[in-house]
Amino acid sequence: MKKSLIAMSLLTMSLVVFSACGKSESSANGAKSVDYQTAERVKDGELKVYAPKGKNTEWLESTLERYNKEYDTKLTLKTTDVAPPAITQKLTPLLVGNEILPELVIVQDSDITGVLDKFPDSFMNLTKAKFEDKYGKTIISSKLNGLKETAPNKDLFGIPQDLGMVMMFYREDLFKEAGVDIATVKDWDQLIDAGKKIKEKTGVDLVALDANGENSLISHIMQQQDKPLIDKDGNLNLATKEAKNAIKIVDKMIDAKIVSYYSSDKDRYPTFQKAAVIIEGTWLAGNMANNYPDDKDKWKVSQIVDYSADEQGLNPVSGGSAWYIGENAKNKTAAAQFMDFAISDEATQNDIIARGSASAVTKAYEGEAANTGFDFYGGQKIYEPILEAGNNAVSLAYYPYAGDAVNYLKMAVYDYWNGAKLEDSLAKQADLMAQKYSIEVNK
Q: What is the pLDDT of residue 114?
């Protein structure tokens, strides 16, 4: 029952249509899985790609140039620019109509579960294709486990692209001006104390929160306690003591008068940029350099502070994506051979890092780019703390309604900030979400 409701949150289709789709390997236009590793190398052909135009597509083009030169092949790319939130919407009519899929699609980790749940044979099963046997140990375990946790039979379908480790971006200049040595700031209480000094000396707030009910920072602190909003069984942790603990830490920041607020998504990152600390996924590292060049040399990157003086906690995760190969795609063998190269070639993995993304492959952190200072961050080797974070990361189960869970958290916090009792506001929203998805509420 839970599984069917999971899919409903992502794909709105009729049961009649569902019954005609997502068949076995031979159902989609007669396509059958092949052993791409032993198949003869495909020398030419077009690879259709769905991906947002930017650093990932530029990386793909660069990788293909390298691949064609290495194997004397003549593959080409035909890329359709699709924004990350719209990828599954773009795939839906193809899946419903049992139509030919692109060779390569990049999908955010949080968005893929509902697709695989209803269409388990629509993308190449990388466990059955022996890809996981070959490369599983080279992928950071938290990323690999997260991709498999909610996939059919817990098999691997996605070729990992980037990590979504949550890091702490901090204004080194403001910490120095306030006389705070960042090396002495170990946990949330110490960070709050540092925030008070920064506010007193510089007038700058420590962090920015959502005026309509903070959820991002709270969910990160829940993950530190190994209590993500949705557990591995698909049930809800919104009413747990770990959720209350996280909210109380945010309460301390508010009480200390070291927070500013934003009221819309449009204002979120400009407001973040005016704070002393940003707690966000690794993807922000490259984005900040591109979008705020005037802030060069002001920011540094570190692991998120420990949960408490007595407990380091796990590193939270936010974001991350993977490539999927269409099972019925015309040139899927060529795509698989190409991506096999992409994940194993040292220069190609080095290229991911050089473009400002945190690769999910351990080999990438041995290359020159990972061990070269990042210009925007004053020459800091930012991938050293990122790799450390990846090796201590929480493992998430990417149920499709996880995105909705943060909305219920947001509503609970908003009610609490407007006078409701914390226990009551969490319980109310937890019950509403549990009824909507027929899931259990953990206490």
A: 86
Residue written as token pair 């009519």? 93
Tokens of 60: 């793909």
Q: Are 215 and 200 in contact (CB under 8 A)?
A: no
Distance, C-alpha 330 to centroid of its chain: 29
C-alpha span between 427 and 419 (Å, rounded):
15
Nearby residues of 385 by Cβ (< 8 Å), 6 or more positions away: 167, 301, 302, 303
State residue 356's pLDDT score: 84
**What radius of gyration do the chain's Cα atoms show?**
22
Which residue is associated with the tokens 């206490």? 443
- Cβ-based burial of 177 (10 A; exposed 0-12, middle 13-18, buried ≥19): middle
Question: Phi and psi (nearest 5°) for 322?
Answer: -150, 160
Residue 108: partners with Cβ closer than 8 Å, 6 or more residues away? 84, 87, 319, 320, 321
CA 27 – CA 258 distance, rounded (Å):
58
> What is the Cα–Cα distance from 118 to 115, expressed in whole angstroms?
6
Inter-residue contact 279 to 164 (CB < 8 Å): no
Round to whole Å and give the CA distance between 261 and 205. Answer: 10
pLDDT of residue 34: 60
Q: How far apart are CA 180 and CA 195, in angstroms?
A: 9
Which residue ranges in the chain fall short of pLDDT 50?
1-31
- The burial of 101, by beta-carbon neighbours within 10 Å (0-12 exposed, 13-18 middle, 19 or more buried), is given as buried
Q: Tokens for 302? A: 């570190």
Q: What is the pTM of this model?
A: 0.87
pLDDT at residue 25 in the model: 35
CA distances for 404 relative to 1, 61, 297, 304, 436, angstroms:
18, 35, 37, 25, 11
CA distances from 428 to 15, 409, 424 (A): 31, 10, 6
DSSP letters, 188-230, are: HHHHHHHHHHHHHHH---SEEEETT---HHHHHHHHHTT--SB
In single-letter form, the type of residue at position 15 comes to L
Question: Position of tokens 């899931």?
Answer: 439
